[in-house]
Amino acid sequence: MTFASILSLSLAAILVQNFIFVKFLGICPFLGVSKKTDTAVGMGLAVIFVMTVASSVTYIVNEFVLVKLDLMYMQTVVFILIIASLVQFVELFLMKMIPSLYKALGIYLPLITTNCAVLGVALLNVTNQYNFIESVLYACMSGVGFTIAIILFSSVREHLEYAKYPKAFEGFPIALVTASLLSIAFMGFQGLSIF
Amino acid sequence: MITILAAVLTLTILGLLFGLLLAVGSKIFAVEQDERIPMVQECLPGANCGGCGYAGCANLAEAIVNGEAAVNTCPVGGAETAQKIAEIMGVEAGETVKMTAYVRCSGGSNASRKYDYEGAIDCLAALKVAGGPLECTFGCLGYGSCAKVCPNDAISIVDGKAVVNSDACIACGKCVGACPRNIIAIVPANNKTHVACVSKAKGGDVRKICQVGCIGCGICAKNCPHEAITVVDFVARIDYSKCQDCGKCAEVCPRKIITK
To answer: Is residue A193 part of a domain?
Structure first.
């Protein structure tokens, strides 16, 4: 794997194929925990962590169980099973071994269990026929893209507190309008590619 | 047939494997937790308001069991909650008085203004513009920063100033921190006598800019039968540990700023 391909894969995952603004995956946590920047950062880090771990495990199970048994159509249900139990296991592990990290990730870790972005990255790895290293890299960088998106959005939302807008737009409506404008901005990266 | 069987078997085996992993994991990585923590948490209101100073009810429960916090730390639950927690912890609850937030300003439309403010609806933002639109440098600006942080919607803006509905108030103290002018205080809810002004300006200056400001005349202090009122920095203050709520001061106040 050359440096150029690493760079282009990362760039695609972070900007061109941004999970939130381009693929519209993981919208629930994106809207739910973006009211404050520090919670957004916590959520973003937890997503990077879970995506990376989940994609490596799903890759192994897919390659050595599903493909071998010719059961590729079971990917979705098996991946859900893997991600759900993996997150639970990681939570148990962190609680005992790294309590400080457990406290930092807090409630965001179990929230990610049912995050479609995590399932999405596992399924996309298969669709794109990535090998193990590419899968892990793509997952990690997608998580970074998610983090950038949610931090950008939460910064805007913090400023919205002091903005004047019609009462009917209070709360989620104005948040959704903001999200769509940010999404349009990210469409600008569509043509971007290296090599 | 064989395909279905293979699919079902694979999923079952995978499910069993992960289930086993979790079961083993929960044994290996079991963190010993005091069984009283969930019991205490059960008694707490569960609103996670943060009024106790901890991040949420779970954190307070942990702190109580570890002996870092008193059983009556929760300001929302009051005596009943404290009693229940005390039973679990095996200690005396002690007495808790229900508290409420109180806005120590009755200015609003009675206070004169320097200019008309047309900006972000936020007290701190208004305060940044030449010290705020009010002539009075102590009074309530009425842009509702306190109302915005109130978890129970107990604060409303009436006639240009914040008013606390003491029935809805849970005395979490968020408004106290949110007020840029430090006007809101946490006071005992059963005591109805309060001084609705915090102006430290001299009497003559207060007269010019506000019809309902404390001029520090001291008539209330002289007439208080329990010596609960002192006038410091040209403003009357009530010592709630001495105040008997008789209302004598409210009767004699020439500016009618002591409420009863």
So the answer is: no
Number of compact structural domains in chain B: 3
What domain range includes position A160? Answer: 9-187
| Exposure of A135 in the CB half-sphere (CA atoms within 13 A) | 24
Boundary residue ending a domain (B72, B89, B106): B89
Distance from CA of A61 to the nearest CA of B (A): 9
Cβ–Cβ below 8 Å for B29 and A93: yes
Query: Are the C-beta atoms of residues B164 and B104 closer than 8 Å to each other?
Result: no
Q: Is residue B174 part of a domain?
A: yes
* Last residue of one domain, picked from the residues B190, B223, B250: B190
Tokens 């103290």 identify what position?
B173
| Total domain count, chain A | 1
Residue B140: which CATH number? 3.30.70.20
Q: How far is CA A66 from CA A47, A60, B6, B7, in A?
A: 25, 9, 11, 9
Question: What residue numbers bound the domain in which B51 lies?
Answer: 36-89
* Contact (CB, 8 A) for A31 and A173: no
Strand pairing report for B161-164 and B194-195: unpaired
pTM over 0.90: no
Which residues of chain A have a CB within 8 Å of the CB of B19? 85
Chain B, nearest residue to A65 by Cα: B10
Q: CA–CA separation, B40 vs B84, rounded Å?
A: 8
Chain A CB contacts of B11 under 8 Å are 74, 77-78, 81
Distance of CA B117 to the CA centre of its chain: 28
Q: Which residues in chain A touch residue B30, judged by CB atoms under 8 angstroms apart?
A: 96
Does the predicted interface ipTM exceed a cut of 0.85?
A: no
Domain check: are B169 and B129 in the same one?
A: yes
User: For testing the chain A interface, which of B2, B4, B10 should be mutated: the one with the most A CBs within 10 Å?
Assistant: B10
Give per-residue pLDDT as tens, A10-69. Answer: 888 898 889 999 888 888 888 877 888 887 888 888 889 889 999 999 999 999 988 888
- The C-alpha of A79 sits at a distance from chain B's nearest C-alpha, in angstroms, of 11
| B→A interface, C-beta within 8 Å | 6-7, 10-11, 14-15, 18-19, 21-22, 25-26, 28-31, 120-122, 125
Residue A74 in any domain: the answer is yes
Give B28-53 pLDDT, tens digit per residue.
887 777 778 888 888 888 777 777 77
Chain B residue with Cα closest to A165: B120
- Domain membership flag for residue A100: yes
Instruction: Indicate the burial class of A29 (C-beta count within 10 angstroms; 0-12, 13-18, 19 or more).
Output: buried
